[in-house]
Amino acid sequence: xxxxxxxxxxxxxxxxxxxxxxxxxxxxxxxxxxxxxxxxxxxxxxxxxxxxxxxxxxxxxxxxxxxxxxxxxxxxxxxxxxxxxxxxxxxxxxxxxxxxxxxxxxxxxxxxxxxxxxxxxxxxxxxxxxxxxxxxxxxxxxxxxxxxxxxxxxxxxxxxxxxxxxxxxxxxxxxxxxxxxxxxxxxxxxxxxxxxxxxxxxxxxxxxxxxxxxxxxxxxxxxxxxxxxxxxxxxxxxxxxxxxxxxxxxxxxxxxxxxxxxxxxxxxxxxxxxxxxxxxxxxxxxxxxxxxxxxxxxxxxxxxxxxxxxxxxxxxxxxxxxxxxxxxxxxxxxxxxxxxxxxxxxxxxxxxxxxxxxxxxxxxxxxxxxx
Length: 371
Known about the structure:
This protein is an alpha/beta fold. The chain has helices spanning 2-17, 44-54, 66-74, 87-96, 116-122, 146-152, 162-165, 167-173, 184-194, 204-217, 230-235, 246-259, 290-300, 303-313, 328-331, 340-344, 354-369; strands spanning 32-38, 57-63, 82-83, 133-145, 178-181, 223-225, 241-245, 265-268, 276-281.
């Protein structure tokens, strides 16, 4: 928690300080870059450095859900120059709706620093990689209290979604707390993969099978909530198993160590194959300062800048040259940077047709209601 508080205070100082008197002449009448990003998802030194090097001021707002981001943009004239939507569903929806400005790669010479293999993964959401650069990425899996899960499920494979999705296991874990993030698009594809089915299936029988699997464990699930609510709860020992994003679990692990209360937190990337997601740097079509936005994207894609961000938030970035600059404890953690074997088992999701999306939403609502 100390690290988070320190980062927050430094971030505030960076924003309040602005560009120093020795900044370039244009700093006297600076452009303001309006950034809208997830909370606790930047290195404050990167913000300060960009302002000092360019004379461009940054107004930085945060959100805690994709619904909030989409709501801002759907109203029009959001005033933002940079947004950070997740590849599915928000980024792909914005691409299809014409709500994003195509990137001018001539203005982003650091574009080539990105891993081509990861860019190819994103093409399912952004054909040709026209509208976004990769900011950070991760997987979806289980955050567990390793000591409690081993005690209660000593004979269950420790690297499988069986830990959660087999009702007999969920029943035994219920007394120490199970939570699932409230996101159908992040949970149901993982359940389909565990069932041995296509995680992007739109077949009614497959969607029903995923719903039935979730309903079978619903009596043992204590909470279905926003992913941001799970980090501290896992770190404090409130839950012994959560289904959520890898980086949230890794941050919870760090907070548990800082608290020193003996809570042991680990991350399980499912052996069945984990969902791979990407948070993208994108520019709204009506951005007031698109040139400054492209300059910021180019700045972020520098290896040393991306390394600092990964060190701060413990999510991997897509710039291979940044990896040697990342702290050893972070870059050598396979839960942060999956091994090549684990990465080969990952999958990405694609946008569903409206009818299938409605069917999935109805199934998710029934899971939340428990019927």
